[in-house]
Amino acid sequence: MLQQNLSSTLFVLLILFAGEAAAESVYVIDVLRVGIRAQPTGSGPSEAVVKSGDRLEVLEKQGQYWRVRNSDGEEGWVNRGYLVDEPPAALQLAAVQQENGQLRREIESLKEARGDEGRKNDALQQKLAEQSEALAAARQENTQLKVHVETLISSREGLLPRYRWAFELLAALLLLGIGLYFGRCSYRCRLRRRFGGMEI
Known about the structure:
This protein is of the alpha+beta class.
């Protein structure tokens, strides 16, 4: 019984401690401040203070200490352990974020340009569709005209045999009229010759 109570109590305490341990999370900051000293030692007053990300110009190297100059022109010695050849993560992140922002702006401008091209493409597609419809209408009208012409040709061919006798009669009358005219002209010419050019 005592062992069972002890186990229950330990179990409850473990749950309480686990809950407290998981309740809050913290992180270490990425800001470091270093003093620039007048002498190449770790002691003595600082001439100036530089922080993470500051760019320094190396003037002289003496063991673990380097003499540097900051952007304000202040010079002094700094322990080599605080210096790196590349910008710290915070500056690299800021540069990446700036580049990311620039890329986003370029993407937006490309989207806008693509939108303009898309609108032009849509207008061309619509114009093409309209011209296709006009072409289809012209082809249909052409087909109808061909049918009409064929109908006229067949009706004309049907008229010729039906009214052939009328055309032949008309041609005969025309020839008869021409013959009578030339016959009369010929007769008058002979009379004129006979009577010496006088008309009767």
